[in-house]
Every structure is written in C-alpha cells, then in structure tokens.
Amino acid sequence: MYLINTFLGFAIAQLADILTRNKGSETSPVKFDFVFFLKDTWIKILFSLMLSIFLSVAIHFNWEDVTEIFGQQLKLNKLVFLAIGAVPELILQYAKKKLGFLQPKEVEGFNRKEK
C-alpha cells in the first residue's frame, strides 16, 4: 500500500508540472503534447521515480527508526508516502526549469537556450 501512495504522490507532482508549464517558451509547443512531454522529461521522470521508490522502501523497512527521529510527539501515518513520491519530483522539476538539470539539449527540433 505504501508504494501505491508513493506512485500517487509522484503522479500528482507530474500533473503539477504539466499544469504549470510555460506555454510561452520558445522551446516547447503551445498546445500540450504528451509525446513531447515524455521525450523532454523522461530522464527526470526515471531518476525521480527511482529516488521516490528507494526512499519509500527504505522508510517502510525502517519505519520505527524514522518515527523515532521526529520524536514521540509527532505521529506519522502512511500518507507520508504521498509526500515521498512527490518531493523528489518537485525538486527535480525546479532544478530542470532553473538549471537545465537532466534536460535534453534538443527535443523534436526544439533547441534549448543556453543557461
């Protein structure tokens, strides 16, 4: 069940990326194109998904130790895995947009501006 929450968090972050994309950018189509999106972000998606899964599995197998880190006052529940699925993706989205991290130089004829 924890991996389902992880994947849901990851999917929510993907939707956020799609809904907040820069339609006015010279290096992306004005109308959303799913195939272009996948070609443009597949490296980031793969890296983010691996991070999310590895973090989820590590936290799941060490649940008592994780809750101990935050102290006895804080009670964590399984919904924390939604955040674990989303946070790596959101961080990588920011790094991709601001720094060009994990971004291909060219996608379907669209060339990137140098950062």
Compute the number of helices: 4
Q: Give the overall shape, derived from the CA principal axes.
A: elongated
In what range is the share of β-strand residues?
under 5%
The largest sheet is:
2 strands, antiparallel
| DSSP E strands, number | 2
Helix/strand-derived class? mainly alpha
- List the secondary-structure elements in sequence, H or E: HHHHEE
**Biggest β-sheet: strands ordered side by side in the sheet:** 1-2
Q: What's the helix and strand layout?
A:
Layout: H1 2-19, H2 34-61, H3 63-69, H4 80-99, E1 106-107, E2 110-111
Antiparallel strand pairs: 1-2
Give structural notes:
The chain is mainly α and 115 residues long. It is 63% helix and 3% strand. The protein has a two-stranded antiparallel ribbon with strand order 1-2. The chain starts with a helix and ends with a strand.
Summarize the model shown.
With 115 residues, the protein is mainly alpha-helical. It contains 4 helices and 2 strands, in the order H-H-H-H-E-E.
Summarize this structure as a short list of keywords or feature phrases.
115 residues; mainly alpha; two-stranded antiparallel sheet; 4 helices; elongated
